[in-house]
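Q: Hi! First time doing this. I have a protein sequence and I read that you can turn it into a structure. Is that right? Here it is:
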Amino acid sequence: MKNKNIQTEIDAAYLYQKLAEKESDETIANVFRQMSAIERSHAEAFARKEKLSLTDLMIPSWRAKTLNTIGKIFGYDYVLGALMDTEKSISTAIISQKQKSNQSLTGTETTHVKILRSILEKEKKVTGIQLSKFESRHRSVGGNAIRAAVLGGNDGLVSNFSLVMGIAGATAAQEGVLLAGLAGLLAGSLSMSLGEWISVKSSQELYENQMQIEMEELETNPEGEMKELALIYIAKGIPEEQAYQMAKDIMSDKSLAHEILVKEELGINAEELKGSAVEAAVYSFILFAIGAVIPVLPFMFTDGMKAVLFSVSLSAVGLFLIGAAITLFTGRNVWFSGFRQVLFGLAAAAITFGIGKLIGVSVS
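A: Yes, that's right. Below is the predicted 3D structure, encoded as structure tokens:
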């Protein structure tokens, strides 16, 4: 039986290979192929250590296959983001474990983002555009829309589940619970929506101002900006001559130079600014509402303890599915993550139900 470490390496090898197959830029595709080979060698080393057969070793898990399906539908940047998140969580766990046992850190615990970049930078024909293209991906995919959907649904479910249980504990009236649940759904969705709109809009305005300043610097002092860009590449470990050539090539196109300087100096991905604040607000409203409606549904058709039990059952299923979905990004065990989510959600609901009971008795 394969252990978790072996399966993690197998999944990474499989997904890096898929990234390579879908990558149109040959230099970056070659980086992904090399990463796939590295991960495969890790899996084989673990297998030899565990004295396992290599015959059917490279079979990806359901998680890896699901991520590949998501990549086919939404684009493979999501897959790269999940890989980076998994590497980050693994390295954090290793560092934490070593610190607890007072073991010295060797530096090998860090994420594979550094390995990816070092492979890319050693490619003799790498250009500033390719390096920037790769970096923009692994910066932007970490907080992607799929995670936002999962967390938005979780916020709606947990908050409204707790509210509904609190009201159900305080009163047996179906109408009161239903009214409170629908009010909580609407209030929470509007609050999340407005918060998302303000967040996106304010970020866009701030970044647009910084980008305008950068454009003015580019127009008034192009030689200085070219030197600055070359120095950035040199700091990344690229040979000086190659770094200056890369900077010179980029500066021949002012709009491209501006985009890369904004990315390198300010850490701003211009692609992220193209999103609509209104669109983000609408998505936030819908995702929160989907989660929030689950605990309310039973009270639309029945009442009393029967409705409470149905609400708890439906919410528990929803919480488990959300916990399971989170494992796509964390790489944790599905059952552990799912039941942990159920436990925390039920605990929050039980507390509010108990408080509601106390308030209801007190008022009576």
